[in-house]
Amino acid sequence: MKKTLAAVIAFAAAPLLAQSQNPNQDLGEKPPTEGVVVETDDGEGLSGSVSFEGSLEDLGIAIPAFATDREAATPASAGGTGALGVELARIVSNNLRNNGLFKPSGPDGLPRPAYAEITAPNYPTWGARGADMLVQGYVRAQGNGQLAVGCYLYDTKLNTQLARQGWLVAPGDWRRAAHKCADLVFSRLTGESPFFDSRIAYIAETGPKNARIKRLAIMDSDGANHRFITSGRATALTPRYSPDYKKLSYLSYVDGNPRIYVYDIGTGRQTLVTQSHNPTFAPRWSPDGRYLLYSMAVAGNTDIYRVPATGGESTRLTSGPGIDIGGSYSPDGSRIVFESDRSGSQQCYVMNADGSNQRRISFGGGRCATPEWSPRGDQIAFTRIAGDFNIAVMSPTGQNVRVLTRGWQDEAPTWAPNGRIIQFFRSSRGARGEAQLWQVDLTGRNERRLNTPVGASDPAWGPILP
Amino acid sequence: MSTSKLTLMVAAGTLALGACSKKAPEQLPPAPQETPAAGIDQSATPASGPGTQEHFATTVGASNTIVYFDTDQFDIDSEDAGKLQAQGQYFSQYPNITFTIEGHADERGTREYNLALGERRANAAKNYLVSLGIPADRIRTLSYGKERPVALGSDEGSWAQNRRAATVVIN
After folding, report:
1. Structural domains of chain B sorted by starting position, each given as residue range(s) with its CATH number in brackets
2. Contact between A300 and B154 using a beta-carbon 8 Å cutoff
3. What is the model's pTM?
4. Residue in A202, A203, A209 to test binding to B, most B beta-carbons within 10 Å
């Protein structure tokens, strides 16, 4: 225990040293670098078919506490592995409930299965409780300090196992095992890609409307592991995670001017996206992480540029007197959707990744701003300005516009990794004018607010964690 | 630039002033008609000297330090021109003063677009001052987009006050 504590202190001290070398920066405590989740039990993957036919929210899913082979101390929980098993099940249950598709029960109010039952469920008991599906799991403390977590999905009507998987995680990454389990269940029951094991960068807002402090912050997809990245001394805006989560790009006024910086989470250092005295806005990563798009105003005129993520020479992709800004790559990296007011008002355009073949796609009435290409490639989300500001989606050719939200000012959509849910921020009117993070699914029916410690804007949802 | 040429331009701005009232919201301080093209009010006696914001604002008149724009627009109309001519006269008189034009937008725009729009507005004001003979390297532009409103309401009057380019002397 003593040895572990010493190691923790050494880890905590390192970032402070790095920060003191950059006194002019606005960076707070360095977030931990990414842990590794090792898949241990891919087993037979999918087996059998799901017996349930009907609306998913009518599906009875029981999620009792995860079992443990023996009570063991772990840095992940003061109550040891037994208490951790309850928390793991709670995360899985909350994840499935909060996306609006499911109404799971447990772990509270459910009997706790024994360790031996995890792989051999007591089907009659769960069937009698009205459960159609059963999620069971275990957590074991490994000799090397790691945690082994297993997750099993059973169909209690057919008495069959539908899916199972296991992971080895460091104690500090225990929540990720629960997210992986929720992803396994979600994917198996909906046929959609996973999204829970992911992270969100956003801007935390405090203070009055005319002197608001805006800080870069990050959190897990369920709001846990929340951290402020900047101190708030300088206004920070519009963050984007690199696809490998190793870097954060965002706008900061830290030198007095609005400029895009790339913050390397591992080294704690940040650099300008381009060496220029001109203001830069709207950072966007390419899907493979090799390039960054940014927008730069030269003599008042804003155009979109591309620069290698490792630095080097920028390539200008748009020109002309209008404001061209933003930009979001198609998942295959071949095209970019962006906004421009070259027609006289904000509209959405698509171009090839080299800037060629620029053409307007939005003709649906109103203005089109902040377009974001779905990770699935089939939709583009955007801020639709027609009186109020709403979140809408359309096909990549601008067809089939569907308005998903009805706020007074909803803006800046960002996609879940699976392209089924969109987060955005909603501002309220008046002198308070607070901003909150919200999310909505593609049906437009399941809308909910995300809990954040303070006001929040500019959500940027990263991909599934590597 | 010769003084006579500047005077001529100021006079032209004065003539144009009467035609312009479309942008002034009711909540705004009175338009500067009574101090034509504003000119420099010699009767004002600022406490601090040249190179301070107080000296600048007192000398040109506080209302002449800020120009306002229509929704999504960045053109300098005759009213703006009159204010900028007053500023130009001041900065011609004090050629060692450098200054910043801060561009702003109202809240009814998306955040990134408004940053670009604020930059465009600041540059429109800058370009006009440059056309009056103020060297470009004395003028810094800075966009705050919609992040720094002066009027906090969510109504047309407040938005009109926030769509602005404010000239500030910072040393």
Report:
1. 3-19+34-168 (3.30.1330.60)
2. no
3. 0.88
4. A209
